[in-house]
Amino acid sequence: MGLTLTEKILQHAVKNENLTRGSRIGLYADQTLSHDLNVIMTYLALENMGLEKKKVPEAFQYVDHNMIQADFKNADDHRYIQGMAEKLGITLAKSGSGICHFMHLEHYAKPGKVLIGGDSHVPACGGVGSFGLGVGGFDNALAIAGEPVYISMPKIVRVTLTGELQPFVSAKNVVLELLRRVGVKGGVGKVFEYSGEGVLTLNVSERATITNMGTETGATSSLFPSDEETLKWLKAFGREEDYVPLSADVDARYDEDIYIDLTVLEPLIALPSLPDKVVRVREVEGTPIDQVMIGSCTNTSAQDLLQVAKILEGMDVASSVELGIYPSSRTVIRELLKSPAYRSLVTAGARIFEPSCGGCNGCGFAPATGAISLRTTPRNFPGRSGTKNDQVYLTAPETAAASALRGVITDPRDLGKKPAVYTLPERFDDHQKDYLHFPGNPQAQIIKGSNITPIPEFGTLPDTVSLPVVLKTGDDITTDIICPAGALYLPIRSNIPEISKVSFHLVDPTFHDRAKALQGSILVTGANYGQGSSREQAAIIPRYLGIQAILAKSFARLHLANLVNWGVLPLIFQKDQDYEAILPQDVLQIENTGELQEGQLVLVRNLTQGTAFFVNLPLFQEDIDALKHGGTVNAVKYKLQA
Ligand code: SF4
């Protein structure tokens, strides 16, 4: 039996483990990726562990999320980050050089390697055939320290692409089509592996658009083969020595098959406020818009922006619309400056921001109250733009540009223009000035600003959990809801007591005060709890506020791992009616947590209603044992102190 591409890559990253689907595997990273927003917890954890130098072969630090220096907080965080990078020997991209996932794709991602990083869109590197795994800050710390990160071996789905994209239908529409078909939960526990003749028609930045936004399906990762296009990309960045050809064996075993004919795809758009509410642009054409944001790690390669510039060329952005553009990297800006493209963008009336996440995480280009914003970002969860009750549509750069010109949602094919013809340059300009390469320095000065508070200490799980339900929610609670994005909140992510005050504000503004007053409670929620980002603050905050167990219909993979790390017991309803029957404030009891075993059913008593029901424990024994210590963070600390 042949191997899938995923199996071929993962077999070098595990030690003496077989890759049976569903089994627990420990992955050793070849590379790690960190960004400024999530890395503070990572570095605090590494300081706690006493790590003097990185143990992973290659480690990279980007500074792209928290760029607004309106006061000392972000600037202090950046200084701490630089100190830790210097100490540990981590390559640092200078602040504002670009969005981590795209910069990594340009300069460091390698076919066949495993990249583990503290962000959910790490699978962008699958565009060059590198297996990317997004993890929380503590797992990222483990990876940097050379320790394995444990996941359940995913199922592998073959996505066969046929045909060729038509003019003005770019790669973003491929992943929107995937989301339309499988939804935001359809990729949970799976890797999407792309194959078929259609793959050959897509270059690396187009492939990375697809693998990046594959995250929105809940997938563990997404992967393209490494082929002639990969070699062209690596050569263009002067690193052809990183090339290895890689593809699945013809007789590889896949768990599912999906077929997408690129030729028949049309411009697509996701409606507010979930990435899988995808319809054809034709169905919402003419909807007035107020704002357009072109940017994020999913789009705004040089190719994307050349296409946008071509559409805007010689025309003006509609007077009712503000258009903001965040290029992916300085490399992209340097490339645009070589052609009339940059001039076209500026002349048309676009605001051009520094290369960073910026508007994507609500840190720079929030829409006005009640305004409709059209974005090329990967996600549109409520409030993510920075404005409560926002109305964010997600689409491809071509649709975004055409709509900016007309002031209404517009199919770009209707403008009657010719698309730009893009050819990858033989060689991009040198990028080394964008990085600082630190060999490691135990004497590096580490300065921690007052905004960085120590990691909270948590105790062990009590043998009997008998607590009231502090909050009951519906499905699809995102990490943005638990720990909000936006310029007001990002700078206080390093300060758990402060950020916890706005937790769940979109669902129940009284949550923080009630949970804190209870000093111990249980949360009940629907399907796909914790979808969205890797931010572990979304696990730490509930724990900090006294939540000891979360009963859900299902959990997002990354968030489930974060809950285990921080000592929150996750349980899954067997029957919807058990979820329905629970009322807020009911007191639930779980006994004998010290004896929990992998695969067992756990009895939950509803003391208020005098009923009882069984729930599933979605964990391997090692995770259960860690939970008994109060989470993996505690378990690792005890191990290191022993
Ligand atoms: Fe940055 Fe947005 Fe990409 Fe996250 S999804 S890495 S916030 S650009």
- The general outline is globular
The CATH topology of the largest domain: Aconitase, domain 3
List of distinct ligands in this structure: iron/sulfur cluster
Q: Which CATH class of the largest domain is shown?
A: Alpha Beta
Number of domains: 3
Task: Work out the radius of gyration.
Answer: 24 Å
- For the record, the CATH architecture of the largest domain stands as 2-Layer Sandwich
User: How many strands, which pairing sense, and closed or not: the largest β-sheet?
Assistant: 7 strands, mixed
- The tally of beta strands, per DSSP, is 26
Task: Assign the CATH superfamily of the largest domain.
Answer: Aconitase, domain 3
In DSSP terms, counting alpha (H) and pi (I) runs of 4 or more, how many helices? Answer: 21
Rounded to the nearest angstrom, the distance between the terminal CA atoms is: 44 Å
Strand adjacency order, main sheet: 13-12-18-17-14-15-16
Query: Mean pLDDT, rounded to whole units?
Result: 95
Unreliably modeled segments: none
Beta percentage is: 15-25%
Q: Class by helix and strand content? A: alpha/beta
- The helix content, as a percent range, equals 25-40%
GO molecular function, one term: metal ion binding
Keywords: Iron, Iron-sulfur, Lyase, Metal-binding
Protein name: Aconitate hydratase
Pfam families: Aconitase, Aconitase_C
